[in-house]
Amino acid sequence: MAERGAEVVGALMKMGVMANLQQTIDADTAELLVEEFGHKIKRVSASDVEVGLTGGDDKDGELTIRSPVVTVMGHVDHGKTSLLDSLREADVVSGEAGGITQHIGAYQTTTVGGNKITFIDTPGHEAFTAMRSRGASVTDMVVLVVAANDGVMPQTVEAISHAKAANVPIIVAINKVDLPGSDPNRVRTQLLEYEVVSEEMGGDVLDVEVSAIKKTNLEKLIENIVLQAEILDLKTNPDRLAEGTIIESKMEPGRGPVATVLVQRGTLKIGDIFVAGSEWGRVRAMVNDRGGNIKVAGPSVPAEVIGLNAAPNAGDDFVVVEVEARAREIAEFRENKKRAIRTAVSSQSTLEELFSAIQTGESKVLQLLVKADVQGSVEAIVGLLEKLPQDEVKVKIVHQAVGGINESDIQLANASGALVVGFNVRANKQARNLAELEKTEIRYYSVIYELADDMKGVLIGLMAPEIRESFLGNAEIREVFSVSKIGKVAGCYVSEGTVKRGAGVRLIRDDVVLHEGNLSTLKRFKDDVREVQQNYECGMSFENYNDIKAGDVIECFTVEEVAPEI
Prior knowledge:
α4 runs parallel beside α5 and α10 runs parallel beside α11. α11 (429-438) links the parallel β20 and β21 (442-445). 28% of the residues lie in helices and 33% in strands. By secondary structure, it is of the alpha+beta class. It contains 12 helices and 30 strands. Residues 345-351 have low confidence and may be disordered. It folds into 5 domains: 5-43, no CATH class; 63-236, Rossmann fold, CATH 3.40.50; 243-331, Translation factors (Elongation Factor Tu (Ef-tu), domain 3, Beta Barrel), CATH 2.40.30.10; 363-462, Translation initiation factor IF- 2, domain 3 (Rossmann fold); 466-562, Translation factors (Elongation Factor Tu (Ef-tu), domain 3), CATH 2.40.30.10.
């Protein structure tokens, strides 16, 4: 306000507020104080730093045609990556562990006619639901790959749901038509159940019979994509500050945090200052999908960006800002917001766990520390582990991040008693030595199926086995004899099932259980026997129990421990 400090303090004292120049006052008092000195006031909140971040809407005259963004979806092993390889004449699939894609890849191809198409390859495995959902949310259309010899499968249905939720058109690529047993019409019929009606069935969904391996009908698939793009009339403004979405992020040795960005509006250039979720940075270098360095990335162009201060979450918005100070301010605000949410969730879960422990006794907890090569894999693994269908052993993720396993990870795991899980990453030498010294277990995986199966095994090992009782038979006591050195022996008639020596027995009188224990003897006439069948007589005596009477019933049963299943 450019007012003298003594006068401000004096005005506060008149209002009954005793404060010096270094103290903080509440907003209402500050408002009264400012008005007292005749100034105009404008109250703002912390969230106002994000106001105007994405800029205004573009005018029609500023819009130009952009390339379509196509997400390839479908069930695992239906040939999505192989189809993309054929389209871009590359060999991505050979580098994938287990032959499956485990993170989102973004590629741009140029067709024979000169049209550019951006493809987003999404994993088909069920654990990557969130990643497929993100893929559908940034796309203009979905190519649904269905194997002609396999038909519609669970993740095919899920992909259809994601595409419909994103309200984008679907083009069906019926793959593997060259294989024996393939039946494209069966695929079309199955898709009718999910309201995906192809043109051949009288609907409006385009479908193409293709073979990724033999490169059959790929030109027709490209034509359908270009045709659909023309119908959608995709336009944007390239002459503005860039905006986009983080497709994937990871930590790379020597390069630091690296994010795959899909530019949606504007043009991204070297030197641009940007905000990505709660992280910020300056574009130091950009790499295209072929590994070449580029200086600009326009609309619908995917690029790896180097220059972040940390790895953002996949799916975060990516926005270029004018100055570094604003980028820092926005990133700090978002980080504080996330920290407040984490603190609230943490304290809430702690209270819930406390009440649960009081009501049900101490529950077992499997503590895990998860490190993976890319952010999408981290999310997928955490989601998979938290959804394991059982309640006896709780899964608690003490830490999750991208990058290799380091000493601080081992120290945290050791302090919390956690198992360290590394997915497509390895521990450095210092971390390995510390893990060996502290006896901290590290498990490495490269395929998510193996990780899921292994974690199920760990949980089953922590779960108590199920006690299962099997009824063997009943015997009626007809007469009771006293025998020296043995005590009382019951003369019995086996009325149902079988009576076995070594099995558990209960003494029942008037439908009330009086005793439960084991047999000390089981005789048929004078001979000891292992078992007596129905409708035969026998002699039985209990271990350390003699209160038996004629008319009592002896129930015989076995107890076995059955390993739990998930």
